[in-house]
Design brief:
With 131 residues, the chain is an alpha+beta fold. It is 38% helix and 29% strand. The radius of gyration is 28 Å and the shape is rod-shaped.
């Protein structure tokens, strides 16, 4: 007797094999998704830090505190909202002039710092042009 199609047992065996194959592949996709998402968050955090530092660049360094931190604030970049904290510190090497400030920006997302940038700000003096 010739029958067409699969028996119930053959179909169940095929589903078990498919399930085992998917169980091995799906964690790889989830891991790739997590890595990609973390990189996207970090890239957007870099953009947020650049915006904060550019804003600080317009401020006269003499008006910035020598130490301490500003209150936490929020900034949006790439559709995400980050919290940032600006910290000021003294120059431990004394290589900085009076009109120089060291500034650190910590970008926080999901309860942790995802990016931090630190730089020194100085006041630029315009060249004297004599006629």
């Amino acid at each position: 007797m010739k029958t067409s199609g699969f028996s119930l047992i053959e179909a169940l065996v095929a589903l078990v094999i498919l399930g085992i194959a998917l169980a091995a592949i799906v964690p790889g996709f989830i891991g790739y998704f997590n890595v990609n998402n973390n990189q996207e968050v970090r890239s957007q955090a870099v953009i947020a830090a650049q915006r904060v530092l550019e804003e600080k660049r317009t401020v006269d360094p003499n008006t910035m505190p020598r130490s301490g931190s500003d209150p936490a604030q929020t900034i949006s970049a790439g559709g995400r909202t980050f919290t940032y904290v600006v910290t000021y510190r003294e120059d431990a090497t004394n290589s900085c002039t009076v009109s120089c400030r060291f500034v650190r920006v910590d970008i926080i997302y999901g309860g942790g710092v995802v990016y931090a940038a630190e730089t020194a700000y100085t006041q630029l003096n315009a060249p004297v042009i004599t006629p």
